[in-house]
Amino acid sequence: MVPEKNNLLLEVKELVKVYGSQCSYCLKLTGAQAERQLCPECGSVVACNRISLKLHAGEILGVVGESGSGKSTLVRCLYFDEEATGGEAYLACYGEGKINILQENAQRKRYLCNYLLGIVYQNPQLGLNFNFSCGGNIAEKLLAAGVRSVDQVRQSAARLLVKTEVPVERMDELPGNFSGGMQQRVQIAKALAHNPPLLLLDEITTGLDVSVQARVLDLIRQLQHQMGIAMLVISHDLGVIRLLTDRTLVMKNGQVVESGLTDQILEDPQHPYTQLLVNSLL
Amino acid sequence: MEEIIKVENLCKIFTLHVLRGKMITGCKNISFSLPRGAFLGLLGPSGVGKSTILKCIYRTYLPTSGFIRYLSPSCGEIDLARASDYQVLQVRQEMSYVAQFLRIIPRVPAIDIVAERLWQQGWAVEEGRQQAGEYLTRLGITRKLWDAYPVTFSGGEQQRINLARALITRPRLLLLDEPTASLDAENKRVVLNLLAELKSAGTSIIGIFHDLEAANQVVDNILVLESSLDWKK
Ligand SMILES: Nc1ncnc2c1ncn2[C@@H]1O[C@H](COP(=O)(O)OP(=O)(O)OP(=O)(O)O)[C@@H](O)[C@H]1O
Ligand SMILES: [Mg+2]
Ligand SMILES: [Zn+2]
Q: Which domain holds residue A169?
């Protein structure tokens, strides 16, 4: 038997995020079955309703679902942009996988973001400082991860830009000068700067031209081959999921309604919502 | 003789929620076993469930009931109808599946599509490409196509790319859905030879064939599926 726990990297247990006052009915009265995320008792929005998942080292896990189903909130809770309301998350490479990272203090969370986690947002404005040059953005991340020599910072930044196919001679320009696709590449370079074992990708091709999308996706595929980084890929685009992932979770109304091998999810979806999703694609 | 795979009472029923819960039978009460190193041919009319059986074994379809016992060197005996996703991913490394219809990875040159399977197993980039080139040559894909993207290839060329990708790993278990369907006589012969070669090197094979003549050249045993969804040997 394959040991199930073999090289587990991230385990999330029952993660909850509620926006609003929250009452004792919030979780029960919302979710996929209830087909709503707004608690009828107190009016809170339940963005994530007890989400559990496992991600193994080097694996790419997809998360699909309609907009508003809580995909981005999940990722933002894992990167501490938002504070989770409840639940647990464990990273194998942190505290021997025994510490619930959602409960760590601000300083430890900063450490986790600086050393162990990388994120790429749909909107480059969130991931990049538009007042810094591209090189500066990457340097910021390298410095946070403890690289001290200026030469080394510049060299590493240049290497990352080469890797993500951004012309190095433009490294001193502001991101605002760049096209959307190029901004995404700079964001990816920045997210990779400290060589994190886990990369969170939130709709990173949404809103880009199809041909630009293709190049960004190819880049992700390449990076995965070369570096074997584990990734959590959020997308509402099943094409992206098909191209990048081995396993997929399907979310609806803040809950996971189905999970499975990506080809199985696409060709033999079980849940009515997944069937709808797949049928609207084909 | 030891069996590599044993299918017992396999049923697959699709419940289509988008069509108000309509049920469609993919396959029903299928049982057979495959001795190690053997080649089993599946024949039967269109729609009888041949592809469904292969997809259940590869677990692209989730079986509704029955057992698919597979003997794996890395996992021991596992039931593919119930194995976890991770177990299936692990066991898939020992298998290759050639689908009836192509799904080619976009924007990847033909040779890399084939070599990729070896890279995943840890081969060096150049060695992988070289080996891929050998398979493509044997399958009659000329060198000028190696760097091209297979989306623009003819049906027969795409089918041979897919075959090269499946055969190159010398899998323990090979699942073939109409592997010679879009090929001309010469290429059909080449493919059947390659399959025979792989078989004598120890690969166990289940193949769906339309054409009995092609099947007869390579298989040890034939399972005929009938529209009544019974089967006989
Ligand atoms: N993903 C699916 N969802 C719903 N029904 C399906 C699905 N896949 C197959 N079926 C149905 O299951 C039955 C068996 O189909 P299958 O593709 O296995 O036939 P086949 O024997 O391979 O036919 P052919 O010789 O035409 O390839 C058909 O009625 C088909 O429509
Ligand atoms: Mg078929
Ligand atoms: Zn409430």
A: 129-195
